[in-house]
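Page 42, continued from yesterday. The earlier attempt failed because a stray header line got pasted into the input along with the sequence. Redoing it now with the clean sequence only.
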Amino acid sequence: MTFTPKSPAFEKAIKDSRNLKAKPTDDELLDLYSLFKQGTQDPPFAEAAKPGMFDLKVTSLSHFYPSSLSPYFPSCLKPRAPGKAKYNAWKKVADEEMTAKQAQEKYVTLVGEMKGKYGFEG
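This time it went through. Structure tokens are written below.
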């Protein structure tokens, strides 16, 4: 797999996703996560560790969490998804054979839709 640099639009969308006025749904957060991982290929999906059958570890999605809501939620209540859910969301995108460039473009589109749906502080 060849390295695809982050486009300026993708970099901006990453920053914008952190400034939504309201929290996206868990499914939307998983969509963002999977497109981000596929768009950055860090690591490539084929090299990513697969969560175990009893993966009970909860991993934060806080880098997609709107910072404007942080004061209202203790860290234990911030959005979280089990490693298996995140892996499966990314696998779905990887199974579609979406390129890193395509994933970045879809990420930019999704963040744009979320800015309209949830409002944006930027």
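Notes: Helices lie at 8-17, 26-40, 83-95, 100-118.
Reminder to self: strip header lines before submitting.
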